[in-house]
Amino acid sequence: MVVSNIFEYRKFHMEQFWQAGLPDAEFECNCILEQVAGMPWHRIQEISLDQLQEMQRMTERRISGEPLQYILGEWEFYGMKFFVGRGVLIPRPDTECLIDLVSEKFRNLRNLKILDLCTGSGCIALVLKKIFPDADVIGIDLSPDALAYAVKNKAYHALDVKFLQGNVMDSCLPENFDVFDLIISNPPYLTSQEMQILQTEVSHEPEMALHGGVDGLNFYRGITRIWKSKLKSRGLLLYEIGEQQGAAVSEILQMQDFENVKITQDLAHRDRIVSGNKI
Predict the structure, then answer these.
(1) Cβ atoms within 10 A of the Cβ of 3, count?
(2) Which of 279, 276, 252, 254 is nearest to 263 (CA)?
(3) All domains in the chain, ordered by first residue
(4) What confidence tens digit (pLDDT) does each residue in 141-180 have?
(5) How far apart (Å, rounded) are the C-alpha atoms in residues 24 and 41?
(6) Are 140 and 116 in contact (CB under 8 A)?
(7) What CA–CA distances, in Å, run from 119 to 18, 96, 150?
(8) Is the pLDDT of residue 2 over 60?
């Protein structure tokens, strides 16, 4: 059976989203319709009964609070498609400002050595490899689920990034590596209190990718102390941070003798990055 009255079904599903209180009902409905039909929604002339049933299943998952990105199985980051799903942190637009800053600071350099700690889906590592094709890029994560997505994304984009499983808080792990021009990380940084009041969508993401300890700073302390020996002289350590963590993370870097410690804001003028150079 083929259904040709697409716009009526689109309106029906959109109303389900509105009734569920989803603020971007039209956008999300269009995303699901396009995923099911395999083409832009405004070009769809007809879909099958099986496709309609799949759309209803996806709609019900979204209404239950599951992130749209997991339902679609993919999301865009810095103009590139990344596969995502349960067990991996969803790439977010805020993180794109890390890429912009690295592109600016290293634009005239070649053969960079880049290490991405807590790499997750591999989005940062893979985008940087695309921007700096002659760079040697390594991504490390503890989660086998996240690394499976990173490897899948690597294969999809055909980019030569090495993804490794490891605990970045293990003080012995750096012994296996040479020195780097850049160590970059978007580590878990939510506080224990924040973990208790997560939005429904965020609660579906892995706790190990979100929880940064009681004060949210565990990974900043550990990574800065453990990995600073693996930065070249004048090498850059660069973190994504929570918007209230700028002063605290800056102090951590300064206490570990980093210089030129700076806080950079995102497009919404919120503190988003702390960076510093190894002396």
Answers:
(1) 13
(2) 276
(3) 2-64 (no CATH), 85-278 (3.40.50.150)
(4) 999 999 999 999 999 999 999 999 999 999 999 999 999 9
(5) 16
(6) yes
(7) 35, 14, 8
(8) no
Q: Where are the extended beta strands (E) located within the chain?
A: 2-3, 47-48, 74-77, 80-83, 113-117, 136-141, 162-165, 180-185, 231-240, 258-265, 271-278
Query: Residue 171 and residue 227: Cα distance in Å, rounded?
Result: 8
What does the block give as tokens for 14?
């959109």
Q: What one-character DSSP code corresponds to residue 261?
A: E
Cα pseudo-dihedral 173, 176, 182, 183, rounded to 10: -10
Asked if residues 48 and 3 have their Cβ atoms less than 8 Å apart, the reply is: yes
Tokens, residue 224: 């800065």
Q: What is the dihedral of CA 44, 37, 202, 85, to 10 degrees?
A: -160
pLDDT class of 9 with cuts at 50, 70, 90: confident
| Helices within 38-185 (DSSP H only) | 49-63, 68-72, 96-105, 123-131, 144-157
Residue 240, C-beta contacts closer than 8 angstroms, at least 6 positions apart = 94, 95, 98, 185, 186, 187, 189, 272, 273
pTM value is 0.94
Euclidean distance between CA atoms 20 and 64, whole angstroms: 9
The bridge status of strand 80-83 relative to strand 113-117 is unpaired
The crossing angle, in degrees rounded to 10, of helices 25-37 and 6-19 is 140
Report the phi/psi class of residue 87: left, alpha or beta, with left for phi > 0 and alpha for psi in -120 to 50: left
What is the Cα–Cα distance from 139 to 129, expressed in whole angstroms?
Answer: 11
Separation CA 214–CA 68 (nearest Å): 29
Task: Decide: 192 and 213 in contact? Cβ < 8 Å.
Answer: yes
